[in-house]
Amino acid sequence: ETGVTQSPTHLIKTRGQQVTLRCSSQSGHNTVSWYQQALGQGPQFIFQYYREEENGRGNFPPRFSGLQFPNYSSELNVNALELDDSALYLCASSLGLAGGQETQYFGPGTRLLVL
Amino acid sequence: GENVEQHPSTLSVQEGDSAVIKCTYSDSASNYFPWYKQELGKRPQLIIDIRSNVGEKKDQRIAVTLNKTAKHFSLHITETQPEDSAVYFCAGPNAGGTSYGKLTFGQGTILTVHP
């Protein structure tokens, strides 16, 4: 196992609600990336946090937001949930030194279902 | 940004045969290429990665080759076993821009190894 943990493991919400997902990075890592994985597809990059600052963002609307804390754990917040937000949300932990070549280790994911 | 194409989408082999999965990428600045294995309901697990200063890397039954001129890289699994059955994803990074450090994943290959 990678040492990356996520909570909760499963979540059911209704359209319009808000959700917060949490990720604890591997010991010694300072970078957390978030990905959305729809059923049958590869993970899609949402954003990355490096030393508490957003360090890049994919093609996701502003209702997807995040935070990184001084201990490098991170939160993903999604407002105004839509049915298409139903997916597995993965966080990946890495040590941000090598200019984008860092190995990313994934957590077990949070499976979100929006009804 | 990076675009990663992965083929084939499904691959069925007999136990003991070899399996090869190929990916092409678009960003010539990409310099890091990981491969992940994802079993049903589990996290993507890094199985091997390669950086652009080498053309091949091997770890027991798994090898990855990289052709930077042609912008493609391949995963080779020899002596396949039923426990190799999973979805395999290739990925390439963005080396800069607004999505620094993100991974762009291929569409995935469902590998089935028949006993």
Description:
- The complex is a heterodimer of chains A (115) and B (115).
- With 115 residues, chain A is mainly β.
- Helices cover 0% and strands 50% of the residues of chain A.
- Chain A has no helices and 11 strands.
- In chain A, a hairpin with a 2-residue loop joins strand 5 (44-50) and strand 6 (53-57).
- The radius of gyration of chain A is 13 Å and the shape is globular.
- The mean pLDDT of chain A is 92.
- By secondary structure, chain B is mainly β.
- Chain B contains no helices and 11 strands.
- In chain B, the strands form 2 sheets. In chain B, strands 2, 4, 5, 9, 10 and 11 form a 6-stranded mixed sheet that branches. A 5-stranded antiparallel sheet of chain B has the order 1-3-8-7-6, with no helix packed on it.
- Chain B is globular.
- Chain B starts with a strand and ends with a strand.
- The mean pLDDT of chain B is 91.
- Classes of the chains: A mainly beta (115), B mainly beta (115).
Number of helical elements of chain B: 0
User: Which structural category do the helix and sheet elements of chain A fall into?
Assistant: mainly beta
Percent of residues in β-strands of chain A: over 45%
CA(first)-CA(last) distance of chain A: 32 Å
Share in helix of chain B: under 10%
Oligomer: heterodimer
Per DSSP E runs of 2 or more residues, the count of β-strands of chain A stands at: 11
**Mean of residue pLDDT of chain A?**
92
Number of helices of chain A: 0
Report the span from N to C terminus of chain B: 41 Å
Binned, the helix content of chain A reads: under 10%
Approximately how much beta-strand content do the residues of chain B carry?
over 45%
Q: Which class best fits the helix and strand makeup of chain B?
A: mainly beta
Overall geometry of chain A comes to globular
String of helices and strands of chain A: EEEEEEEEEEE
Count every beta strand of chain B, where a strand is a DSSP E run of 2 or more residues: 11
